[in-house]
TrEMBL record:
It holds the Pfam family FUSC_2. Residues 692-724 are annotated as: Disordered. GO terms for cellular component: membrane. The chain crosses the membrane at residues 31-62, 74-94, 100-117, 148-168, 417-438, 468-485, 497-517. Residues 386-509 form the Integral membrane bound transporter domain. Keywords: Membrane, Transmembrane, Transmembrane helix. Its main location: membrane. This is Integral membrane bound transporter domain-containing protein. It is found in: Membrane. InterPro entries: Memb_transporter_dom. It comes from the Bacteria. It is a multi-pass membrane protein.
Length: 724
């Protein structure tokens, strides 16, 4: 029953229209690259050559739409070079299965391991496998193979030249990432007005940090406005949380709470204005009411103590945001300094210096339990098996089956199955549409070439709205290209539909045979997050014990590590909820409760971070003892969670009673902060601590709850509750 419910979710996901901002100018420019290649080949060579040459331009263009922070022209050139290399090497080994199959297996395995570098590298690498499968059937000699590879590479060059000559929103993705980070903090401030303990998802800040990493050549041309506001958002975040929190900030009711709501509303308005300014590159208007709220009247200020301290700090930070919004991101036009002694930008290695990075990333994933490694094994097996099956079928284009498998496969279950459904649905719709037009128009290579370019433009436009919808026009593009090459649609169209279905089925079966489920790994992911959170909370406490620059740097590094661990947990948890396997060691309810507990520990540390004393302020030496106890207990508890043992906070309780708990009014924020941390730890222990009998009963209840949810969905009486 769970497989049926999961497959229903897969079908809905594969056919869902995703909300995404369309980029028609980018699609038009990329389709122009395809048109240049097809038109030139039709004019100078032949229709058949034009059909094969379009592969490089189309695939290189599609690669530029992937989420990456490198220049699009570099991605286009890299994709074109990879496609050309796979074409030529594949031809050298073609002709005999004893040479081609090992090459295909090794190449597909390497393409699967490319996911260790990120989704962009993995997707581009998968297209090179498809290129190898298609183009080995086209050349007739080594010279022709070199010529064919060169034309494919020129497709990438054509795309890169168009990007260089006709830039569309240069640094647009980086601007959007930074604007999204500021808008996320603005939304958080707005939610805090009504819910003082509202959670915050740090993903936009993590994305903005990733986008801020640039190569030295990029740093020389990066707009100055992209240099500083990310740090401003990072500093504002804990301050608004501290101001809103009734434990360490403004009182729960009364004039102080009203004043806090005013400041939070003004912060939201100003940060939204700064986000619009950065996104559009133009000055943004700020409501006068919001600016007036920032004027502090010393005699009439109703906030006191830590709340007043947070309010004053927030006013200082919002003044910087006001400058950004009012200037439209045009201030500080001086170039970004590149001095060797100063780390003025986050360093991203150049393409020529990626080899050590690639080696380290691949080495980390070369283990049997790695999802990337298992994906690479599946990809190699499916590509070779699909090629063998296709070679035995009485069809001319049997390579479509392994190509369909390779292009839908992803390291996780849900995306693989959803893309398989989307590819089949899109192929059916696109083939039907294109076939009708082919029958109506008759054989004309130039007309089919124009229709192929239009289909490519529509596929690029809809690329981010859902795989099924972009695949519809990709399928039409292929049909028109076959028409350009003189292929009879009566044979090729039914073949493509059947082989796409076969390839998708093989890809889905491969995941069942050799899966990489995230459900069994949830305790380990939770343990990693717990240990990282413990280190972050301990680093904050050490900054109270001795507020030095070194401790602040340690606190920053621990915060980033905590966010990475939280993101890894969240991704694994979302994948596990959509997997058709039973929970192992951590039920859905336990996972949810443990997640909320660790979010509470995160939040307690963030609140304390906003009140970390300055270097010239008084020290709180008792915080060091609690930091050591907290770090030791959370590290031990992480091992306990992995081994399914109950965690214990003995050292934390001893330190709390011995020192920090008795600080009184001398350090109320520190005292209240450690109390919140202890409460979060107790909630975590409650979530994951059970006797062996309770664990057996809990697993049985979890199965019963899932079955009840499926039954309720079947009769329409209740919505389905996703389980892990």
């Amino acid at each position: 029953m769970k497989w049926l419910r999961t497959f229903g979710e897969v079908v809905r996901s594969g056919l869902t229209i995703e909300e995404a901002r369309l980029e028609p100018l980018l699609a038009l420019r990329t389709a122009a690259g395809v048109a240049i290649v097809i038109g030139t080949a039709l004019w100078l060579v032949s229709p058949a050559f034009a059909a094969s040459a379009a592969l490089g331009a189309y695939s290189a263009g599609a690669a530029t739409f992937q989420r990456t922070w490198r220049p699009r022209k570099v991605i286009a050139l890299g994709a074109g070079a990879g496609l050309a290399l796979s074409t030529f090497v594949g031809y050298l080994a073609a002709g005999r299965l004893v040479t081609f199959l090992p090459l295909l297996a090794v190449w597909a395995f390497a393409a699967g391991m490319a996911w260790s570098l990120g989704s962009t590298a993995g997707i581009v690498a998968a297209t090179t496998v498809g290129s190898m499968l298609v183009t080995v059937t086209l050349p007739t000699s080594v010279g022709r193979a070199l010529e064919h590879a060169g034309v494919i590479a020129l497709g990438g060059v054509a795309q890169a030249v168009l990007i260089l000559l006709f830039p569309v929103r240069r640094w647009g993705a980086h601007r959007d990432a930074l604007a999204d980070a500021l808008a996320a903090v603005a939304d958080y401030a707005r939610r805090l007005r009504h819910d003082p303990v509202a959670p915050f998802d740090p993903e936009p800040l993590m994305t903005a940090r990733d986008a801020a990493a640039v190569t030295p050549s990029q740093a020389r041309t990066r707009p100055p406005v992209l240099h500083g506001p990310r740090g401003l958002a990072e500093r504002i975040l804990p301050v608004v949380a501290a101001l809103a929190d009734p434990d360490v900030g403004a009182p729960a009711e009364g004039p102080g709470r009203d004043r806090a709501r005013e400041l939070l509303g003004a912060a939201a308005d100003i940060l939204d204005a700064a986000a619009r300014s950065i996104r559009r590159g133009t000055p943004a208007e700020i409501p006068p009411r919001s600016a007036d709220v920032l004027r502090v009247d010393e005699e009439r200020e109703v906030l006191e103590g830590p709340a007043r301290q947070a309010a004053e700090r927030l006013v200082e930070l919002l003044a910087e945001a006001l400058e950004i919004a009012a200037s439209g991101g045009a201030r500080d036009r001086a170039p970004t300094p590149l001095g060797p002694a100063s780390a003025q930008f986050l360093v991203r290695p150049t393409m020529f210096r990626l080899l050590p990075v690639v080696r380290r990333a691949v080495r980390r994933e070369l283990r049997r339990d790695s999802p990337v490694f298992r994906h690479a094994v599946r990809l190699a097996a499916v590509a070779t098996l699909g090629y063998l099956i296709a070679s035995r079928l009485p069809v001319e284009h049997g390579y479509w089956a392994p190509i369909a498998s390779v292009m839908v496969m992803r390291p996780d279950f849900h995306r693989t199955y959803a893309r398989a459904v989307g590819r089949l649905a899109g192929t059916l719709a696109g083939v039907a549409l294109a076939t009708g037009m082919v029958r109506a128009l008759g054989p004309d290579a130039h007309v089919f070439g124009a229709l192929a370019v239009v289909s490519a433009a529509l596929a690029y436009t809809l690329l981010r709205t859902g795989y099924a919808y972009s695949q519809c026009f990709t399928a039409a593009y292929v049909v028109f290209l076959l028409g350009v090459g003189g292929q009879a649609w009566e044979q090729t169209v039914p073949e493509r539909v059947v082989l796409t279905l076969l390839g998708g089925a093989v890809a889905m079966l491969a995941y069942v045979v050799f899966p990489a489920w995230e459900t069994p790994r949830l305790p380990g992911r939770l343990a990693d997050w717990l240990a990282a959170d413990g280190r972050y909370a301990a680093a904050v406490l050490r900054s109270y014990a001795e507020p030095t620059r070194e401790h602040r740097a340690d606190m920053r590094r621990a915060l980033l590590a905590s966010r990475e661990a939280r993101a890894a947990w969240q991704e694994a948890y979302e994948q596990a909820r959509r997997e058709p396997v039973r929970p192992r060691g951590l039920t859905t309810r336990e996972a949810e409760e443990a997640q909320e507990a660790l979010k509470g520990l995160d939040r307690a540390a963030m609140l304390m971070e906003s009140y970390v004393p300055r270097a010239d302020s008084g020290f709180a030496p008792e915080a060091e003892r609690f930091a050591e106890a907290l770090e030791a207990d959370t590290a031990q508890a992480a091992n306990d969670v992995r081994e399914h043992r109950n965690p214990d906070w003995g050292r934390v309780e001893e330190a709390l009673h011995a020192g920090v708990g008795a600080t009184g009014d001398r350090s109320p924020v520190l005292r209240r902060g450690v109390e919140l941390q202890k409460r979060a730890l107790d909630d975590l222990a409650t979530a994951v601590s059970r006797t062996p009998l309770e664990r057996d009963v809990g697993s049985a209840r979890e199965d019963q709850r899932v079955r009840a949810a499926v039954a309720a969905e079947g009769d329409g009486s209740a919505p389905t509750h996703g389980g892990g």
